[in-house]
Predict the 3D structure of the following.
Amino acid sequence: MFKARKSWREKLEKTEGLPKIVDIPKKMEEKLGKGKMLIPKPLDVDALICEIKRGKLVTQEQIRDKLAKDFKVNVTCPITTGIFIRIAAETAEEDLRKGKKQITPYWRVIKGDGSLNEKFPGGVKAQASRLKEEGHRIQPSKGKKPPQVKDFAKYLQRL
């Protein structure tokens, strides 16, 4: 028998052993430094995304910095945070398909350089469309670099 695949909502609500504070792994010390690292739970990431107001933006780095500050650690794991942002996005789309009207505004999360996230549902095209609906202008991709929000720094919300 095959085990049924977990829904995105089940993945978002998974909390076993999380949040967890660990020493920054040796292989990550060069980039992140020494100290303590938070591995958040997906719902912590989702809750921060839900705070982003219409017309505003937040970078993935801002989310990690806010979680690190809240948990009084040096850094938040960039890998798990990225995965949990994606889970929040997929859960939002799953909720929308089930008829929910209010969903997590994941499309307001951008990369540190203002670029859009190719891994979001519908890719950069769908994210760009939603951001345009909120008044943002999108600069086309340059080479391998994904499209970016024009003047994104003006729209960053403080977490």
